[in-house]
Amino acid sequence: MTVPGRRSSTFSRLLRHGFTDPSQAERLLDVPELSALRGDDVLLDALGATADPDLALRGLVRLVEAQPETDRQTFTTTLLAAKPFRDRLLGVLGASEALADHLARHPRDWESLVTYEATDLHPGVPEFERGLAEAVDAVSLRVAYRRSLMAIAARDVCGTIDVAETAAELADLATATLRAALAIARTATPADAAMCRLAVIAMGKCGGHELNYVSDVDVIFVGEPSDGADEGKAMQAATRLASHLMRICSETTVEGTIWPVDANLRPEGRNGPLVRTLSSHLAYYQRWAKTWEFQALLKARAVAGDPELGAQYIDAVSPLVWQAAERENFVPDVQKMRRRVVDNIPVAQVDRELKLGPGGLRDVEFAVQLLQLVHGRSDAGLHSGTTLDALAALAAGGYVGRADAAQLDEAYRFLRAMEHRIQLYRLRRTHLVPEDEADLRRLGRSLGLRTDPVADLNKEWKRHAAVVRRLHEKLFYRPLLDAVAQLAPGEIRLSPKAAGQRLEALGYEDPAAALRHLEALASGVSRKAAIQRTLLPVLLGWFADSADPDAGLLGFRKVSDALGKTPWYLRLLRDEGAAAENLARVLSAGRLAPDLLLRAPEAVALLGDPEGLKPRGRDHLEQEVLAAVGRASDAEQAVAAARGVRRRELFRTAAADLIGSYGTEDSPREPDPGALVDRVGEAVTDLNAATIAGALRAAVRAEWGDELPTRFAVIGMGRFGGHELGYGSDADVLFVHEPREGVDEQDAARAASKVVAEMRRLLQLPTADPPLLIDADLRPEGKSGPLVRTLKSYAAYYHRWSLVWESQALLRAEPIAGNRELGDRFIELVDPLRYPAEGLGEDAVREIRRLKARMESERLPRGADPTLHAKLGRGGLSDVEWTVQLLQMQHGWVEPGLRTTRTREALRAAHAAGLIPTEEAQTLDEAWVLATRVRNAVMLVRGRPGDTFPSDPRELAAVGRYLGYEAGHVGEMVDDYRRITRRARAVVEELFYGA
Q: Which pairs from 755-760 meet CB under 8 Å and 24+ separation?
C-alpha cells in the first residue's frame, strides 16, 4: 500500500516529467507487470522525454502485458539496460497510438528496435526488401511493413534522421513494398507474369523520394508483351497484375491497410487504360498532355517490375518534361496553376490546412517545380524530383536568392515535420492541424517545444507559414530584379537568357523590354530604387496574373516616372496594402484606365483610399464642377476644368469596375455582374450630367452672365436618360427652351441655339481629356430639324406629326441639366405619348415590329457575326430593350412600375405585374447584363468603343478575364455568350414578335 506522502511525492515527480494525468500514471506504474520497472528513475526520465508521456506509459503497459511470461523478463531487462532501445521504443509509443496498437498485436516486434548497426541507422531499399522478404500475402505484408515503418518512426522521433531523410526512407520502404506486392501478384498468376513485362513508375511524393507516413502512393504502369506474346493479351495480363498489386496494398484486412495506390496520374486519368505500352504513353504525351502532366512527370521514378522497361520509360519522357515550357499553352496553364486553389477546402478548415492552405506545403512545391520547368530545359542540374534538393540547386544556380532559399528550406522542413507527426499519431492521411489541446501539446513536444508546447507551436507554425506566403511568389520575381541590379560580391545573378525565359513563362511577350523597364525602375542605390525593389516582386506577380503583363509593367514605369519625385507615391504603394494591388490590376487590364491615369497620375491616390473607389453621386459632382466653372477666367478654361473632373471620375469608375470584376486579395470579386453594370451606368450618367451642367453654365456665363434670356433644359435620351451609359457612349439629348417674360421669341431662339452650339464646341475641344460627344439626332425631324425647340413647338409637333418610334424613344426621356421646372413640364408633355391610354393599338404594335425587323436586316454592320454583336445581334441589347419597351407602351398606363427609363427596373416591374414569367425575365436580364458588360469590357481593353468581341487574342483574353473567365477559357466565354443570347432571342420571339 502506498503511503500518502509517497503518493504525493510520486505525483509531483510525474507532473515534473510532463504527465498530464499523474493519477492514472501512478495507477499504471503500480500494475504487477511493471514491478521490475516501477522504481527505476531512468524509466521515468525516458518517459518524460517523449512527446506524450501518458500515451507512452499506456502503450508500455499494453506491450508488457502482451508479452508471453517467458519473454517478459528479457524485455524488461533490455528496456532498462539498453538506452538506445529504450529511447526508440518509448519515443514511438509516445508519438503513435497506431504503432502502440501494432506492438500490442505483435508483442515480439519490439526486437526489431534493439539492433543498432550502421545499416539500421540509414537503411536503403535492399534492407527494406529483406525486412519484407517473408511476406507471402496481403496480411503478412502489412505486418512486415508496419514493423519496418516502426523502425523509421523510431529513428525519426529520436532525431537520428532529419525530416528529409525520414521522407526518403518512407519512399524507399514504399518502393520495397511495391516490389513485394508485385512479387505476390506474380506468384498468384504465373501465366500472366510470363506473358508480359510490367514496370511500376512512382510519381508524386514517392517518386520524388519525399513520402509522408500516410499518403496515397501515385504510380503509372508501363507494359510490354514478352517475346512472342500477343500484345492485346499481354496488356490484359499486365492489367490484371497491376490491379492485383493495387489491391494488395490498398485493401483493408485484419491488419488494416498499407496505403492506397493511386494510378490516376496516368494518361487520360481514370478514363484511360490502367496499363499502356511505352509507345502509347509517348503518343499521348506528345499530342494530348497538359502542362500539369509534365509537372507531375518531374517526379517520375522507376521503382518496381522490369527495370529495363522502367529505365526506357524515364529516358523517353524526361526530354518531354524539359520541353514543356516551350509548348503553346504553357503560359496560360502556368497562370491557372499559379492561382491558389482553396475553393474546395471547407471554410472552417482553411486556417488549419498544412498542405493546401495559404503558406502551405503546396506553395513551396509548386513554386519550385515551376521554376524547374522554366529553367531546367537549359540546366540539367535542376533535374531533381525532390523539393529540397531542387530548391538547393535553384539557389546554387542563381535562379532563387540564397537567403530566400534558406528561409524557404527551413519553413518547408518545419511544415513537413508537423505533417509527419500529425499523421504518425494514428497513421491516418490528414493535413489538418488538430484543434484539441492535448493533440497540440503532443505535437509541439514532438517537435522539441517543451516550455509552452501549444503556444510555441502556434507561433512557429504561423511564422513559417508567413515566410512561405511571403516568399513563394517572390521566388519568381526577385531574381529578375537581381539580374539588373548591383549584387554583393559572391552573389550569383540570373543570366539575361534565364531572366528572359522566366519572363516568357510568366506571360511577357517582350522579355527584353520588360528587363529594360525593371532596370530603369530598380537599379541604383537611391531610396526610390530600394522601395521599387521591395514593391516590384509582388507587382510582377499581379501583372503576370493578367492578360497583358507587358502593358502592366510599362504602365507602372510611366506612372512611376511621372510621380517618382513626389514623396507620397511610393510610400502609398508600400504602406497601403490595397493600393499596389489595385494599381497592378488597373494597369494590366486594358488601355482605357491607364490612359486616363497617365493624363493625371495623381489619381493613383484614389486607389489607396478605402472610400476612393466609391462613386461620388450627381449632386456632389455637379457642385464641384460648377464651383470649378465659377473660378475659371473664360468658358474654355471652365469646361477644361469640368472635363478634368470627368476624366478623374471616369478613372474612378473604371478602376472600381476592374477591381470589382477581377477581385483582389483583400476584396473578392463582385459575385453579381448586374450590380457592376448598374454601378457603371449610374456613375457614368452622373458624371456626364455634371459635365454638361458645367458646360451649360460656362456657355451662358460667357455671353449673358448669370441668366440666359430663355429658360433652358437638357433632356437625357437613350442610355443617358436610362442611367445605362457605358464608357464609350455618346450623350443622347434633346434641348428645350422657353422664352422668359418680355423676351422676343426669336431672340430667345437665337440665344438657345447659340448656347447649344457653344456647349457642343466646348465639350469636343481637343485636349488631353476624353471628349464628350453630344448627339441630338432623336429630336423631332431628326438631323433635318432644329437643334433646340420651345416647349410649345415640341407640343405642336408631337400632337400632329409624332411617329410611334418617337414615342418609343421618349420612354428614356429624363431631365439631366438646366431649368428643372421646364424639364419636368417636358416630361408631363411626353408622358401621354410614351404611356398611351389604353395601350398601343394593333397598327402601332405592327409598326414597332416592322421597324425592329428592318433594323435587324439593315443596321448590322457588313460581315458582323449576328450571334456575337452585343447591340444589334441575336438576343443582344436591342432585342431585350425593344421587348421591354413594347411592354412599357402597352401596359405603362395601368402599371406605375413600368414608368421608368431604366431597362432592368422596367423588366422587374413587368415580372412583378405578371407580364413576363420568372424564367423568361431572368433570361432577358442575364443577356442584357452580359451584352452590356461585353461593350464595357471592349472599351476598357481597347480604349475605343465596340460591339463585338476583339479579334486580337490578347485583347480577347483580357475581355475574358474582366468577365470572370480564367486564362485559356476564351472559347468557353464565347460559347456561353452565344448560349445565353440564344435563349434570350427565343424569349424575344415569343414576347415581342408573338411567335
A: 755/696, 755/699, 755/700, 755/703, 755/708, 755/712, 756/787, 756/788, 757/787, 758/635, 758/699, 758/702, 758/703, 759/692, 759/695, 759/696, 759/699
The predicted structure's pLDDT at residue 611: 83
Amino acid at 128: F
Please report, as a single letter, which amino acid is at residue 949.
F
CA dihedral for 954, 955, 961, 965, sign (positive or negative): negative
Bridge partners (DSSP) listed for residue 716: 733, 814
- Extract the C-alpha cell encoding 273: 487504360
Residue numbers of the chain with a pLDDT score lower than 70: 1-8, 36, 39, 116-120, 331-332, 334-348, 473, 481-493, 577
The answer to whether residues 446 and 456 touch, using CB atoms and an 8 Å cutoff, is no
Alpha helices in 801-917 (DSSP H): 804-809, 820-834, 842-858, 877-891, 903-912
Q: Is the pTM of this model over 0.90?
A: no
pLDDT of residue 345: 58
Q: Are 209 and 385 in contact (CB under 8 A)?
A: yes
Q: Which helix (H) or strand (E) holds 86?
A: helix 83-95
Question: Please, are residues 866 and 859 in contact by the beta-carbon 8 Å criterion?
Answer: no
- Scan for cell 548497426, then name that residue: 117
- Running DSSP on this structure, what letter comes out for residue 982? H
Residue 442 · residue 457 · CB < 8 Å: no
* pLDDT at site 486: 57
Cell of 688: 456626364
Compute the chain's Rg from CA coordinates: 38
Q: What is the pLDDT of residue 116?
A: 67
Residue 968 is predicted with a pLDDT of 80
For every residue of 145-158, DSSP letters joined together read: HHHHHHHHHHHHHT
Q: Which is nearest to 691 in space by CA: 631, 768, 770, 751?
A: 770
Distance CA(351)–CA(364), nearest Å, equals: 17
Rounded CA separation 278/223 (Å): 7
**Do you know the residue count of the chain?**
995
Q: Alpha-carbon torsion 99, 101, 105, 110, what sign?
A: positive
Set of cell numbers at residue 247: 489491391
| Helix (H) or strand (E) segment spanning residue 321 | helix 307-322
DSSP 662-720: H--SSSPPPS-HHHHHHHHHHHHHHHHHHHHHHHHHHHHHHHHTT--SEEEEEEE-HHH
> Please, is 120 exposed, middle or buried when counting C-beta atoms within 10 Å of its C-beta (0-12, 13-18, 19+)?
middle
Q: Which of 762, 768, 772, 757 is nearest to 635 (CA)?
A: 762
